[in-house]
Amino acid sequence: MARRILNFFKKLDQEAAKEILPMGKTGSATGSGIWNNRSPLPTSNVMENIQYINGEYMAVGHFDQLFS
Q1: Helix or strand or coil: residue 10?
Q2: Cβ neighbours around 4 below 10 Å, total
Q3: Which secondary structure element, helix H or strand E, spans residue 6, and what is its range?
């Protein structure tokens, strides 16, 4: 399932994807470049890809997790 979601991101119109972080990189809305766990802890799983689309961050991670 995560692979299908990643393929969906790859097919998005490039104009809609304002900011793309390459696979294997991390990022955050604050621009620090590192995703920090905050209380309550949402997950300890690895995020594979993060996209900024139409004013919202979308992240795909291990075990088919999708965060927005």
Answers
A1: helix
A2: 9
A3: helix 2-11
Rg (CA), the chain: 12
3-state secondary structure (DSSP) of residue 11: helix
Structure tokens at 1: 């399932």
**Starting from the edge strand earliest in sequence, which strands make up the sheet with 65-67, in order?**
17-20, 47-53, 56-61, 65-67
- Long-range CB contacts for residues 32-36, cutoff 8 Å, separation at least 24: 35/59
In whole angstroms, give the CA distance from residue 44 to residue 55.
25
In Å, how far are 4, 37, 53, 60 from 7, measured between CA atoms?
5, 26, 15, 11
pLDDT digits (tens, 9 = 90+) for 19-64: 444 444 444 455 555 666 565 555 667 778 888 888 888 888 877 7
